[in-house]
Structures are given as C-alpha cells and as structure tokens.
Amino acid sequence: MSANFDFISKYYPTLGHETATLVAVSCFTANNKPELLSGLINKIIECQCVDMSATEPNSTEYLKKTQLLTLIEKARETIFKNVFTVGLPLDTIDSSNTQSEPQTYFMENSPRYNKGHDHFVRTYGRVSTKLLNRIDSFHPDLVYSILECVYSDILSNDAILSDSESEIITVAAICILDTPEQLFSHVRGAKRLGVADTAIDAILELSREIKNIS
C-alpha cells in the first residue's frame, strides 16, 4: 500500500492545501484505509516543521502552529462527521421499498427537528421534500434520526467545519462509495452552498484517484 501522498499537491492550486487535505482524509476514511489516513496526518505534521512550543501570538512560528492545529482539528472533525453521513445510500431505500408508496413525512415541531430540517432544506433546496419522503418510506424513525441527530446535531454544527466544508467532505466520501444517485444529490447540495464547479470537479477527480489506490 503506497504511502506517497505527493499526488495530492497537484490539487492545491484549485482547492488549496487545507481543502485538498480534508478531501483526502474523507476518502481514506470512507475507503477504510486507516494506514493511509494515519500516514497522511503524520506526513502533514512532519512537512510543516512547526515549533509546537511557540507561544508568541505575533510570531511566524505561532501562526504556523495555529494553522497546523486547525487543520488537524478539521481532519478529526471530518472523520467524525463521516461516521454519520455515509451509511445509507439512496439506492438501498428504493430497492427495499417495493411494496408501498412513499408517504408524506410527519412534521414534528421540536427545536432539534426544526433546526435539522432547516439545514436539510438549505442543502437540498426544492428536492428536500421528495428526499424526505423517500427516507420516510424506508423506516418511520429514519427521518427523525437523520434530521435531529445528523443534520441538527452534527452537520449544522459549523464550529470547526463550515457548511460548505462539511458538504465537500461528504461528496468526497460518497464518491468513494460509488453510489451515483447519492453523489448527484450531494454535488447539488455543495453547489447550493457555494462550492464552485471547478472545485467540485477537482474534489471528484482527487477522490477517484484515491479510490484507485490499492
């Protein structure tokens, strides 16, 4: 298994160092490559050559230290969020829903539900209701779990990763899983959140390159 991560650097001009790194972290997580994931993080730390004892806020070393710690924190948040966002392809919902028509989901007015619903709609726009109907048809508790736990508690939390960054890492992870319909939905979501077409193309290209690493 190769531990050469130099290929990632060719995506820096389009994505920037931080975003390209987070895409790679997301892909290695979804592709179940823990050795490469650990190797990438260690390589990042080694290449930065940062003095971690720096304490002077205005110094160059302190700035480099802060940037490195921020990137590591975002990488950890990427792994955490992927736990909740790559588990149920839309194709699975459709294939197990052959005996009944989708029913309109029940709108619950709890604060967590509403917060999650708002974030879901902000991401998926006019197809939100259609997606929620499909999810609801699979299991009566799934809509509430996704909206309250995933979209309210996890994805809408932008303290570390912004909304667009969260969608970028989701696109990367789902590209690895080879679920085209789900990928299409999240690419549209990324565009709705302001991710440029050129960035999306680079994210998908980098993700597919990582997918082919054996």
UniProtKB/TrEMBL annotation:
Organism name: Smittium culicis
The protein, known as: Carboxymuconolactone decarboxylase-like domain-containing protein
Domain of life according to the entry: Eukaryota
